Structures are given as C-alpha cells and as structure tokens.
Amino acid sequence: MRKRMIAGNWKMNKTFSEAIVLAQGIVDELSAGTGDVDVVVAPPAVDLKGVSEVLTQANSSVALSAQNVYWEESGAYTGETAPSMLESVGATYCIIGHSERRGYFGETDEDINRKAKALMAHGIIPISCCGESLEIREAGKHVEFVVEQIKADTAGLEITDPSKYVVAYEPIWAIGTGKTATADDAQEVCGAIRKTLAEIFGSEIAAGIRVLYGGSAKPENINGFLEKEDVDGALVGGASLKADSFAAMVKSAMN
Q1: Which runs of consecutive H residues, i.e. helices, occur in 70-122?
Q2: Given phi > 0 = left and psi -120 to 50 = alpha, else beta, which region is 160?
Q3: Hey, is 210 helix, strand or coil?
Q4: Is 123 annotated as a binding residue?
Q5: Burial label, 245 (beta-carbon count in 10 A; 0-12, 13-18, 19+)
Q6: A GO BP term, please (predicted)?
Q7: CA 21 → CA 16, 17, 80, distances in Å?
Q8: Which domain holds residue 173?
C-alpha cells in the first residue's frame, strides 16, 4: 500500500522571515498529526535552513525538500548547490526536472537523470517531474511523450526501495495557468507512468513508487485526483503558499 504524499513547491516565493512564518503556520495547522500521509515542503534554497529549524524545533513530521540540485559533489559551479549541502541542512527530498527548470533554464532529461543519481547516492529522495506541453497534448501524443521522459530520467537508476523515488506528473499547460487536468486525464498518464516503471524496475517496485499530480492542484479539486488508482497525492504550487489551504489538502489526503 503506497502512502499518499502532499508536497508544497514554494517556487521563488517567500523571504527568509516570510518562510519562517509560513512553515510555523503549516506546523500549527497540522499539529494534530498527518496520519498516514507524507507531507513535504520545498522552500527556496536560502530559506532551507530556517524552515528546517522550525520543523525540527516543533518535532514535526513535515519533511524538507529542496527545489533543485547540481550533480557534482563540489567545485567551480557558481550558484549551484551540491547534494551534500542539502543533506547538511536537513533536506530529505529534492524536486528535479520541474517544467520551469526545463523550460526557462534548458535542463534536459540527461541532466535530470544525473541529478537523480547524485541525490540517491546521498539518501535524498528525488521528486522527479515530467509532463507535456499543450501542443503535445492537443496532438494526442502526451502519453508517448511522458513515457519517453520517464525512460530517460530513470536510465541506469537502481531502485530497491520504492519509497525512495517519487514521480510528479505535471502537465505544463496546467501549471500556474488556472487550467487543470481532469482526474481522468491525470489517471491516464499516471497509469502509463506506472506501467512504464514496471517495465523498467519490475511490477513489485513500480507498485510502491508514488506518482503525484501537479498542475493547479488545490483544496477544491484534490479529492477527485486522490480517488484515482494511480494518483498518490499532489505536488502543490500556489496553494502551498498559504498554511490553511495547504493543510486542507493534507487533511483531504488523510481521509
């Protein structure tokens, strides 16, 4: 049985002090516990240490994620962050391959694959994103496109514990646009992702890998996604920037 997951991607929002307030608000909203749901927050890199301290001091079950990483251990890579640096501030997850990283910064499937390997070598769980553009969706090639992404992003990975790797399906056309894939749309692609993972890692491992939906997920529509067999939770953007709305999604996943 896969544990559900609600992960909040804060993107480039919240100053250090604002991040502290938001983290404390989430802790307070979820003070009664999160049941059998893994809850993750991903603040900007400069906020990681502060948020980590809030979570630690509260003895919270909420886990810390970074939004990006570089695959080298150290060196002359100005502006980048190594896996060991994330590890040292308490990050146990890291988002990779987000469409904004792919689109704005030219990241490739090869880059995502390298990042996954580097993270897993440090015991940090990748939340590896995939998804199609509106053009590809309208051409009816969205499943084929995402399947190829999954194959490239997981090439050469060794997964023995399926809880240590997470996939997030995020149709690009539904991110920050107000448009949302239907629950059936999400199931179609998430089901294809799981089938592909089974072909790569075997059915037993694939059955345990969480596949999240991302793309304008919010309290009003989360239940529809959670009802689908192959949707195990959500990677939340805008709705994760308010403690009450994010907590409401966690509570929906708990039911």
Answers
A1: 83-88, 99-105, 109-121
A2: alpha
A3: strand
A4: no
A5: middle
A6: gluconeogenesis
A7: 9, 6, 26
A8: 5-254
User: Based on the structure, what is the number of domains in the chain?
Assistant: 1
Q: Decide if 98 is catalytic.
A: yes
- Identify the CA nearest to 119 among candidates 94, 101, 100: 94
Tell me which of 98, 100, 132, 142 is the catalytic residue: 98
The residue with tokens 């150290």 is 74
- For residue 210, the cross-strand partners are 166
Whether the Cβ atoms of residue 46 and residue 16 lie closer than 8 Å to each other: yes
Token pair 């993107």: residue? 11
pLDDT recorded at residue 242: 98
- The pLDDT tens digits of the residues spanning 7-20 come to 999 999 999 999 99
The single residue of 100, 132, 170, 188 carrying the catalytic annotation is: 170
- Which stretches does DSSP call E strand in the chain? 4-9, 37-42, 63-66, 93-96, 125-130, 166-169, 210-214, 233-236
**CATH number of the domain to which 63 belongs:** 3.20.20.70
Task: Say if residue 234's pLDDT is above 90.
Answer: yes
The string of pLDDT tens digits covering residues 165-185 is 999 999 998 877 777 789 999
Query: Does residue 84 have a known ligand-binding role?
Result: no
pLDDT at site 175: 76
- Amino acid found at 143: V
Alpha carbons 189 and 143: distance in angstroms, whole number: 6
pTM exceeds 0.85: yes
What pLDDT is recorded for position 215?
Answer: 86
Q: Does 8 count as an annotated binding residue?
A: no
Q: Which amino acid is at 137?
A: R
The DSSP call for residue 97 is: -
